[in-house]
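Worked example 3. Consider a protein that binds alpha-D-galactopyranose.
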Amino acid sequence: MRHSSLFTAISTLFASPKYEAKYPINDLAVTPQMGWNNWNAFACSVNEHLLLSTAEKLNVVGLRDAGYKYIVLDDCWSVGRDGKGNLQYDPEKFPRGMKYVADQLHSMGYLFGMYSDAGSYTCANYAGSLGYEEQDAKTFASWEIDYLKYDNCFNEGLCGTPKISADRFRVMKDALRATGRSVLYAMCNWGEDFPWRWAHTIANSYRMGGDIYDSFSRPDARCPCTGEEGDHCSYAGSHCSVMNILNKAAYVVHNSKIGAWNDLDMLEVGNGGMDDEEYKTHFSMWAALKSPLLMGNDVNTIDAKSLSILSNPAVLAISQDPAGIPVSRMWRYYVNDTDAYGQGEIQMWSGPLFGGDQVVVLLNGGNRTRMMNATLEEIFCHEMGIAPEIKEDWNIYDLWANRMDAATAQSIIDGTGLAPADVYYNVTKLSFKDGLATGNPTLLGKLIGMVEADGVIKREVPRHGVAMMRLRRSKTRLRAASAHQVPLGL
Ligand code: GLA
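Given these inputs, the predicted complex is written out as structure tokens:
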């Protein structure tokens, strides 16, 4: 073949429809999806009023405009099928039907999420979609849903290898696509059959482990895997703590792709089982690992601290960063300060951001406040040779230092203050992508110092807390008092 015809053949190959799609599944979840799901706080107590009053409240406290766009209904909404096999919503819980809920949510500026299961029953024993995929996808489309969480209970033994699971979950993906409606597909098979290896060809997000529990580090027999088994967990279970989920995610999260995210499960912020530092850590890590951010609290009784965590634009800008690269765990050490749940540990996570910035998280899973250090060499550790970034100077922005104070948050909740989106950042007006591209200072956090080439970052980190930072190349070389030290509190 002559060179020119070889060139033509190659260009034709890349121009063929197979390569046309910009993202693996569809053009949704270009950044991890953000929203609210009822399960963690309400389980099966669902109805029209809960969804609509939550949407209304999210609007009032500014969380819709902070980016939380999906209102997702979980299990327990149906009463089975009619004589023709059509799924029926529970008329007591949803007296005006699902299309009405969708219409209301759409008119309020939200997108509507629905739940079903790739098995004969859902996890709470309601009708599942296995064998009814096309029919159910049509029903969901007729209700004008925008999102489907698709669970894995009662799957009739159709699991055990990646191919068997993938084939089962692909049926609903194809059925949704055939409706012509744009629907974000959130697979929930709890890490079974290694979805991080194949689910990016099927879903916009995929759960990588068992159900979350509102605890920072409490071990639980119902969540037997700890991460020590690498990515081989045979039983995902439930009641998994934040640290448990992170230690499992460390092995798989790098498989995330734009449009197909590892899902660490829904947020517990505001549900009462963790303290403020622990919730900040939970939220920071879910954002840095590019998990979907689905709030799981009762928004109608939200407290000031939870609001100021969930609305922090500097952390949300990490979650929604256009580069879409999750942080990696660069190191992990055990520490001697134990608590009721056993030995503590400390970790450092780091990853690149859009425009050449870097996010760094020092995580203190120990039982006391401690100084923590990370060298640039650790932060920019590359497999091959010395990373050039180590030889540069970096400004350090703290992503929690500008957190909204409790009085302001309370005034927003009471309806006497401005919503956070009006004070801080409104993504309905300016996307994170555009805000980052124009260097919006609200998204950067607070400049607290600089680390010079070959230097080390030192931060005091509270018990179960994080120091979460954005590093940005320093244009003006600020001389530190002593070489390679960070002048804190600039
Ligand atoms: C499974 C899922 C949860 C929730 C429940 C509902 O456990 O993992 O997120 O949807 O089912 O029954």
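Take a moment to read the result before moving on. Confidence is low (pLDDT under 50) at residues 1-20, 478-490. Residues 328-483 form a domain with the Immunoglobulin-like fold (CATH 2.60.40.1180).
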